[in-house]
Design a protein that fits this description.
single chain, 215 residues, alpha+beta
């Protein structure tokens, strides 16, 4: 299982050790126990953070509420729409976080072969005007509402209500994990898609401590 993502550039021994500890902590192992499972995967994209992203697990499904123009109902009271990735795509797609960000910002690294479909559905066929990721984050609110977003234009997919990933954590075995967004604070991220079919988590109030994603 792959647990640390290297974006680009050379990593120092200190960075590698820190990444190994973070990856092991996320799966509830000690670094020594986790050594044989850990792999470094190159994911070269200048819009992602330099250095290392830590994998939460394989990205299986995303829950969101599509925009409803005349509705003021709370997102939890409307029905979810989902993006569900097939097993071949999910095996090479990851939910990851930036351990250098103070609130562990999430990133969705989707297998490139799936990007064309995502771009067609959520960019080309989406009538909503594109805005910068930072603008969508400010609209969403929460501790992730400001700072650190790349200069990328994107369109909203919807209000993100949950994410499902698959991984092997110590004592749990291989399992699917479902994490609800905005459960306590009601600051829901806005899930966005850019012209290349990359998905972005904008805003929200989540963090990623070792027990899992929390609001």
């Amino acid at each position: 299982m792959s647990n640390a993502k290297r974006n680009r550039g050379r990593l120092t021994p200190s960075q590698i050790r820190k990444a190994k500890r973070a990856a092991a902590d996320w799966k509830w192992f000690t670094p020594r126990e986790f050594e044989q499972q850990l792999k470094m995967i190159e994911w070269d994209d200048p819009d992602y953070p330099d250095g290392v992203l830590i994998e939460c697990g394989n990205l299986a499904r995303i829950h969101f509420r599509a925009p409803a123009g005349e509705s003021s109902r709370h997102p939890r009271r409307r029905r979810d729409t989902t993006i569900t990735f097939s097993k071949p795509v999910a095996r090479q797609s990851y939910l990851a976080f930036d351990p250098e960000h103070p609130d562990d910002r999430l990133y969705m690294l989707v297998k490139p072969s799936a990007s064309a479909f995502l771009a067609e559905r959520f960019w080309q066929d989406n009538p909503v005007e594109a805005k910068a990721l930072s603008e969508w984050a400010m609209l969403a609110g929460g501790r992730h509402s400001r700072g650190g977003y790349p200069n990328v234009m994107a369109k909203p997919v919807g209000v993100m209500t949950a994410v499902v990933y698959f991984c092997h954590k110590k004592d749990d075995g291989p399992s699917f994990y479902v994490h609800k967004m905005g459960e306590m604070s009601c600051y829901y991220p806005i899930l966005c898609c850019d012209s290349r079919g990359r998905l972005w988590v904008c805003g929200g109030n989540y963090r990623n401590p070792t027990p899992g994603i929390t609001d």
